[in-house]
Amino acid sequence: MAINVLGINHKTAPIEIREKLVFDKESLPHALTDIKNIDGVNGVILLSTCNRTEVYTENDYDNSKIIEWLKNQNMTRDISEFTYNYYEEKAIKHLLNVTSGIDSMVVGENEILGQVKHAFKIADSNNMINTPLKKLFEFSFSVAKQVRTDTDIGANPVTFMFTAMTLIKKIFEDFNSKRATIVGAGHMSKLAIKYLQSHGINDIRLTNYNYDKGQKVAKEHGCIYSKIQYIGNLISTSDIIITSTSSSTPVIGKGLMESCLKTSKNLPVVIIDLGVPRDVETEISSLDNVFLYSIDDLGEVISKNFKLREEAVMEAKKIIDNKIDEFKQWLIQSDSEKLVKAYRGFVDDITHGAIIKTKKMIESGENIDQAIDYLASTLKNKLTHETTTKLREILPLLDESSLKKAEEIFKKNK
User: Fold this and answer.
1) Residue 235 gets which letter from DSSP?
2) Least packed by Cβ within 10 Å: which of 84, 112, 198, 225?
3) What are the backbone dihedrals phi and psi of residue 41, each rounded to the nearest 5 degrees, phi first?
């Protein structure tokens, strides 16, 4: 069995693929159960964010059944070309890069660590994790902390909202008179409100599907709340629309947008779609006076304009490489302990059976010397037969150094 990861992310798959493989809090436990029930899977953790879906398992080296399972999740095409498979050391390194923020679209961002911890918590609470996976993820959290403490990897990262505001500024010179609508009431929506307000935009409306949560967020952030059924009126009177929901279907369709544009006096309109799956139908980008940007569009801007200091990246990679060696040593030690435990169990079983038979011989009146001879002979034969048989199979596979260590085991004490 090996620790491995099968996944897709912003580097390997476009948003139209990634959005089909997003697992929310309702579907995640069921998905974990499905994967755990796949033959050969001992433990599983499923990480699902807007930029990646990754399946971490202790599994054999054949992930074809997991790929087939992923393909059956809302997919109508083969996704093999978009996936990556990492095993053992490469899988360990990948997870450490992910939790440390090195593998993120926004290099050094902090949110991914919380997302990995959340995925771990859900898998653990559903009894989906075995010891190696649990140890690896807990280890990755400590490595991520060290990377962020000892390097500048997370210093002043270029965020999605920073990039979004840069794009909006290209369309509007004067911010103060603009009106914005936020669709959604989660973390990114709250962040969007703060960014808009910091740029002088205070006429902000918020709408979402959860009335109580939406009202609470709007009140806490000084916004006006409106029910989702009035989204058409909100669009018609907005200059800026930022969406970030967990809806599985688009919130704003092309037909709705076309209807709103007919009565809108606020043109042009900038729409920032941070949802995965996407909240806004892509066809809207073809409409006049509409500027639509998806999360992948923002990622392209970030990659072109953001250069992380090489020194911080190199320092982070050095820490991770050293920590990989440390975790590999734990795996070796863990495997050794399992082997020793199994051998002790093997010896205990043989010894127990031989002692019971010897006691019965003595109780039935047989000579005690004969009983002791029987015990010694039985233990010698049963213990050496299986061991020597396996040694003949293993010794040809050992290098010279390992062979000498094996010989040391059987040297008589002088």
Assistant:
1) H
2) 198
3) -95, 120
Residues carrying an active site annotation: 50
pLDDT at 96 over 90: yes
In angstroms, the first-to-last Cα distance of the chain is 41
pLDDT of residue 12: 94
- From residue 169, give the alpha-carbon distance in Å to each of 50, 241, 271, 302: 25, 14, 13, 16
| 70-80: pLDDT as tens digits | 888 876 677 88
**DSSP label at 135?**
H
Give every CB contact of residue 15 below 8 A, 6+ residues apart in sequence: 276, 278, 294, 295, 296
- From the list 94, 2, 23, 15, the residue with the least C-alpha distance to 51 is 15
8-state DSSP, 398: S
411 pLDDT more than 70: no
- DSSP calls for 300-339: HHHHHH----HHHHHHHHHHHHHHHHHHHHHHHHHHHHHH
